[in-house]
Design brief:
Blueprint (H helix, E strand, L loop, with lengths): L1 E3 L5 H13 L4 E4 L7 H6 L1 E4 L5 H7 L5 E4 L7 H14 L4 E5 L11 H16 L2 E7 L1 E2 L7 H7 L1 E4 L5 E5 L1 H13 L6 E5 L2 E5 H12 L4 E4 L2 H11 L3 H15 L11 H4 L6 H7 L1 H4 L2
Length: 285
């Protein structure tokens, strides 16, 4: 039996959809069950509760063999995930597929990547098989810039003239579903991407073609980006974590050739053009 976390989020929800397509039933822990899509809730076992609630997790982990671990990035993320992993180990879970970070390493300083690596190491110490999906820049991150694209035809990001590798979270979900449903357990680090490296001006040019109007990339100053985040986020740790991550990307962290996710999914990765075509309504006025 498979246990999923994060099914109301992008990656967890898409993984749930992929497992449904495969006809594989699963159990999910959900803090807000009313947010679960009907086709997911009707065909699978939904347990209302919080991942931090030990009694809920002990119930949810009964009879579980494999688990998807994905939680929102936050200051207490490592504490929460390690607690869940310890409960999973006690319940006899054999495999944990964790959504991690492409920057995760023993020497990284960025807060988000650092905590992901910390959790990876903990999983290795208590779970027989730990598979760590280290994805690159999510195309869905472009949604955060939808408003200026809509209203001013500009794509403002603090990324200078670097190039980045990108991927659609739907491809990441296909990889996670494949790992969770494979006859054999897999383990290890999986740095993966779908597209790239591609420059920000080229991303804006692709948006122009798909949306049918000129979109210009604006290299946003770091401090201006921080001020923008401060206006919409009241979590100082998260603001700092995002800004630090973008600074590392600007320095070239994603300007490399990473293994293509098609090697795991067996399918061609979703292109930037296809992603934008699928979400034109998000970026159009």
């Amino acid at each position: 039996m498979i246990l999923l976390t994060g099914v109301t989020g992008n990656v967890g929800g898409a993984t749930a959809a992929e497992l449904n397509k495969k006809g594989i039933r699963f159990r999910a822990v959900v803090r807000t069950p009313d947010k679960v899509k009907p086709d997911i809730s009707m065909q699978n076992e939904i347990i209302p509760g919080d991942l931090a609630d030990v009694s809920v997790m002990r119930q949810a982990l009964q009879g579980i063999d494999r688990m998807l671990l994905v939680t929102p990035n936050g200051e207490q993320q490592a504490v929460l995930e390690k607690s869940v992993v310890d409960l999973a180990a006690s319940a006899g879970v054999q495999q944990v597929v964790k959504i991690s970070s492409i920057e995760a390493s023993s020497t990284v300083e960025a807060p988000v990547a650092k905590l992901h690596y910390e959790v990876e190491q903990h999983i290795k110490s208590v779970i027989p098989y730990g598979a760590f999906l280290r994805g690159t820049f999510y195309m869905q991150t472009l949604f955060t810039m939808a408003q200026p694209v809509k209203t001013a035809n500009v794509l403002p990001l603090p990324l200078g003239d670097t190039r980045i590798c990108m991927m659609d979270v739907r491809d990441l979900a296909k990889a996670a579903a494949s790992m969770l449903s494979d006859d054999q357990y897999c383990s290890g680090e999986y740095p993966i991407s779908g597209v790239g490296p591609i420059s920000l001006p080229d991303i804006a040019a692709t948006m122009s073609t798909v949306l049918g109007r000129e979109i210009k990339y604006i290299d946003m100053p770091d401090e201006a980006y921080r001020e923008t985040l401060d206006k919409v986020l009241d979590d100082k740790w998260r603001v700092n974590a995002i800004c630090t991550l973008f600074q590392e990307i600007k320095a070239g962290a994603l300007d490399h050739d990473f293994p293509n996710i098609s090697g795991i999914t067996g399918e061609e990765a979703i292109s930037l053009e296809q992603f934008l075509q699928d979400h034109k309504d998000v970026f159009n006025p």
